[in-house]
UniProtKB/TrEMBL annotation:
Phylogenetic classification of the source organism: Eukaryota, Metazoa, Chordata, Craniata, Vertebrata
Gene name per UniProt: Vwde_1
Keywords for the protein's UniProt record, in alphabetical order: Disulfide bond, Signal
Residue spans crossing the bilayer: none
One Pfam family recorded for the sequence: Ig_VWDE
Species the sequence originates in: Nothoprocta ornata
UniProt domain VWDE-like Ig-like: residue ranges: 2-104
Name listed for the protein in its UniProt record: VWDE protein
Length: 252
């Protein structure tokens, strides 16, 4: 009879010896007496296929994988697949169980926005799902992101003045203890610019670039853009003619 794992494998971020790691946990510490585990770490390739990163054999109810920028890079989606077996019968393994995908890097929440050209502010959160590593032991430990926008028309052509305004052109991610929601976060507001032009709905990309003074692991990493769709709203018109007759915004 094949045994089964007590828990579905779960990946969580961990800071170990000031290095960013992912931890795969798959058993209660007291439930795996005498069990051995084979842990397969994999990631999604650009083509959407799973690539093996590393394979571990351990008696521990967890396994670590370092985000080293080579075998595991920021921006990767990672999985761990675990099978259990007894030391004396390694050929009799349990059915493998796979974790949900874990995105290691910086992401925007929400991942896309649809807003109207009405001047209202919308909150955009920037979240790091992995620990912020620091080579210096001082208060200046942080990751700085330079923010910019690129406006695209319906035919993906640059058109007109900016259609989106950001409350800040730069945000800092400071290291905090990792929780289920992430390891560092910052927020800004996004507003659709009221331009008094009937230019139709437009698409803007909000981009983040890691400052060159940040840690080496982060410098070569570019987070995924946020797509902001701005709904064009009709604007009022007023007229003045002859000596004088005035038609106001409300038509009088």
């Amino acid at each position: 009879k094949l045994m089964s794992l007590a828990l579905q494998p779960v990946i969580t971020p961990k800071l170990v010896a000031n290095r960013a790691h992912l931890q795969c946990v798959y058993e209660h510490p007291s439930s795996g007496q005498g069990l051995h585990y084979e842990v397969l770490w994999s990631r999604l390739s650009d083509a959407g296929a799973k690539e093996e990163i590393r394979r571990d054999s351990t008696q521990q109810p967890f396994s670590y994988l370092e985000v080293d920028g080579v075998h595991l890079r920021l921006g990767d989606t990672v999985f761990c697949t675990v099978t259990a077996f007894m030391k004396d019968t390694p050929d009799q393994q349990s059915l493998p169980k796979e974790s949900s995908g874990f995105y290691a890097g910086i992401k925007f929440l929400p991942e896309s926005l649809q807003i109207a050209e009405d001047g209202k502010e919308h909150v955009l959160t920037i979240l790091s799902t992995v620990p912020i590593t620091c080579s210096r032991n001082d208060d200046s430990c942080k990751i700085t992101l330079q923010l910019s926008t690129e406006d695209l028309g319906k035919n993906s052509r640059l058109v007109g003045p900016p259609d989106v305004a950001l409350s800040s052109c730069q945000v800092d991610l400071h290291p905090t203890p990792c929780t289920v929601s992430g390891c560092a976060a910052a927020a800004l507001t996004v507003t659709a610019v009221t331009d008094f032009a009937r230019d139709g709905d437009r698409v803007t990309h909000v981009r983040a670039k890691v400052d060159e003074g940040s840690e080496p692991l982060w410098r070569a990493y570019t987070p995924t853009d946020v797509q902001v769709t701005v709904q064009d709203l009709p604007t009022g018109n007023c007229y003045s003619f002859t000596d004088p007759h005035i038609i106001t915004f409300d038509g009088w």
